[in-house]
Design goal:
Distance between the termini: 93 Å
Shape: globular
Number of domains: 3
Strand content: 25-35%
Number of helices: 9
Helix content: 25-40%
Largest sheet: 12 strands, mixed
Number of strands: 24
Oligomer: single chain
Structural class: alpha+beta
């Protein structure tokens, strides 16, 4: 073998090693505060191109989306209810459209010279009734948290004083961004000085491919369902989508992963507990308890994990750092049990005292936990900006090939009104969406309507 060939082989080897090491730095390096690594769960985001992720990291014009800023629904408004489209994360068009939408949002929020104007509810509805895209989030965000998650200058959002869970982008005749706080009847509008051609192209492709293959979609306000009707004075959140027909959704199977010694040791390390020095004992009923210094971790045979911390630390976390702390723990636990189901925010607070909650996503839909111990898959409590407790129902969900069809919307609404009217004489339905109900029992779960009610008066 001559020297030239050896040099060529060595060069190829060095290039390969450079690519491998570079990839490891990109995907394993801790790039965010509190140890949270947004790149560690690429498979959960259903983004298949490694190049796309690398491009997202280096290119300022492309946002890499954390699933903690992912809407649970994208509605494409065409100006006609018969051609409106609704997408969830399981749809192939969801991520490409969301990526382009976030590019527009970043541009809108990065320019401090663009004014943020408060507008009327009617103007916001007009945007939804024209050519636009509506992003429905499962939780409310403060302007600060939203901007930091999207990776832009949150000073541009200082005029948005309220939290919001609804965002819209209109693109005809010009591009505008809207933020809505429905509960407090406060709406904001930002005129974008950049074009949204790529977003419009993605939306057009989706509309073209799905012509005549979807139900008619109205918003609640289109049908006056946001106004009291019936003897029980029932009202619906004006942005709830009312579907003319039901679609099919996959059945999922809830599983409780086996927690062997290696998995338990790895979970202990996530909470910075040393498996070799902590105390361990088993309570009646099979709950394993680990105690070290000022922290206690419990895991029972049904998959309930509970961590309690009594010691304080000098560091006080802001809202963003609290979220990344919870995300880091949840990701660590899910990686350890080899659970590939994504999680989304369900509840977050802008105050230093409060709860951050996450829910599992399966088959593109949120899993609504309904158990005696937890109302969400993850519930973390903070006091004075410090983590005090973390609880999680350890689960994994398998999506099957079997599909079922939930009740029609109006039938499901009638059932909900009939049930709630037994104890309430005023019903305000805040959320009504297709998801999975998990009562913490293992086995098959079919998609069904989830109804959340607030602002109610209990009947006597």
């Amino acid at each position: 073998m001559n020297k030239e060939r050896i040099k060529n082989l060595l060069l190829v080897f060095l290039i390969a090693m450079n690519f491998i090491l570079g990839s490891r730095i990109l995907f394993e390096r801790k790039l965010w505060p509190s140890g949270y690594n947004f790149f560690s769960n690429i498979s959960n985001w259903e983004i298949t191109s490694i190049y796309q992720n690398i491009k997202s990291f280096f290119d300022n014009d492309t946002i890499y989306k954390s699933r903690f800023l992912s809407p649970e629904k994208i509605v494409i408004n065409t100006g006609d209810q018969t051609t409106r489209l609704s997408l969830d994360p399981a749809d192939a068009e969801f991520n490409p459209i969301l990526e382009e939408a976030y590019i527009v949002l970043q541009k809108a929020l990065s320019d401090n010279t663009i004014p943020t104007n408060q507008i009327s509810r009617g103007e916001f509805y007009s945007a939804l009734n024209s050519s636009s895209v509506y992003l429905e989030y499962p939780a409310e965000y403060s302007a600060d948290l939203f901007a930091r998650l999207i990776g832009t200058n949150y000073e541009a959002m200082t005029k948005i004083l309220n939290t919001f869970s609804d965002v819209a982008i209109s693109y005809s005749p010009k591009t505008c961004v809207y933020f809505a706080d429905i509960e407090n009847d406060i709406f904001y509008k930002i005129n974008v000085n950049k074009s949204s051609e790529e977003l419009v192209m993605r939306l057009g492709e989706c509309i073209e491919s799905r012509q005549g293959n979807h139900p008619i979609i109205n918003y609640s306000y289109d049908l006056k369902f946001d106004q009291p009707f019936g003897a029980q004075k029932t009202t619906l959140n004006p942005l709830i989508q009312v579907y003319s027909s039901a679609e099919e959704y996959p059945t999922i199977i809830s599983k409780n992963p086996v927690l062997d010694k290696n998995i338990l040791d790895n979970i202990l390390k996530i909470f910075e507990m040393n498996p070799n020095t902590m105390s361990r004992y088993t309570q009646a009923g099979g709950t394993t308890v680990f105690v070290e210094n000022n922290a206690t971790l419990k895991i029972d045979k049904n998959g309930y994990l509970e961590y309690e911390k009594t010691a304080s630390s000098p560091e006080v976390l802001d809202e963003y750092s609290m979220l990344t702390t919870v995300a880091s723990i949840a990701d660590g636990v899910n990686r350890t049990i080899k659970n590939e189901n994504a999680m989304s925010i369900s509840k977050t607070y802008s105050l230093q005292d409060g709860t951050i909650a996450l829910d599992y996503i399966a088959g593109g839909l949120r899993v609504n936990l309904n158990s005696e111990k937890l109302s969400h898959a993850v519930e973390a409590k903070f006091e004075n900006g410090q983590l005090k407790s973390y609880r999680q129902l350890i689960r994994s969900y398998e999506t099957t090939a079997n599909k079922t069809k939930p009740f029609e919307f109006l039938e499901a609404l009638d059932i909900a009104i009939s049930e709630y009217s037994k104890s309430m004489n005023e019903i305000n339905i805040n959320k009504m969406y297709i998801g999975y109900n998990d009562d913490a029992e293992l086995g098959e779960k079919n998609a069904e309507w989830i109804v959340n009610v607030d602002n109610v008066i209990i009947g006597e």
